Amino acid sequence: MWICGFIINNHSDSILFNLRKPGESGYRIPRGGAFEFVSGANFFGEIVEWWGLAIASNFQLPLLCFAISTSLTIGSRAWSHHKWYLEKFEDYPKNRKAVIPFIL
Question: Which DSSP category does 33 fall into?
Answer without folding.
Answer: G
